[in-house]
Amino acid sequence: MWRKFCGWLLKALGWTAVEPPAEDEKCILLGVPHTSVWDFAISYLYYTSVGGFARCMVKKEMFFPPLGWLMRKLGAIPVDRSNSAALVKSVIEEMEKPGHFHLAIAPEGTRKPVKHWKTGFHLIARKTGVPVYLGYFDWKTKRVGRGQKVELTDDARADMKRIQQLYEDMHLTGKHPEKYITQ
Known about the structure:
Layout: H1 2-12, E1 16-17, E2 26-30, H2 38-49, E3 54-59, H3 67-73, E4 76-79, H4 84-96, E5 101-105, H5 120-128, E6 132-133, E7 136-138, E8 143-145, E9 149-150, H6 156-170
Parallel strand pairs: 1-8, 2-5, 2-6, 3-4, 3-5
Antiparallel strand pairs: 6-9, 7-8
Helix pairs in contact: 1-2, 4-5
């Protein structure tokens, strides 16, 4: 019932879900371009409507009552962004536990314009051996999807350059286009 409601709401908002959820038991789903808090809502509606469930990291300051309860129910994980090494370590530990775990991450790390994306997802994927998908939401075409699977190497810098180029080639538009910087 909830899945159908999310699909209806996504469609009512004018969005088209492009792909099914990732079939992998564990994976990382990137979400680009991240320029608005509404990206979370669209992503959640999309992934739920196609039968998926993804977790995401949200700054711990957002987990105040009653919003905290709702955020956890929607798959949000509270994180302390002041210690990135501890954050990555705790996510790796969660990923290594048995069971389904799809993690949605905005590699930009913020809704502000940034040229250099965070590499934490790369480290998590390499340490746990999970695949990475180039998830996207395009506010111009109102299409949202999990995107293609991308193979990672041991060279995080080269992989980030390649991933950013793949996104640039998609010609995506953020809700706030001025906040999305491509290479």
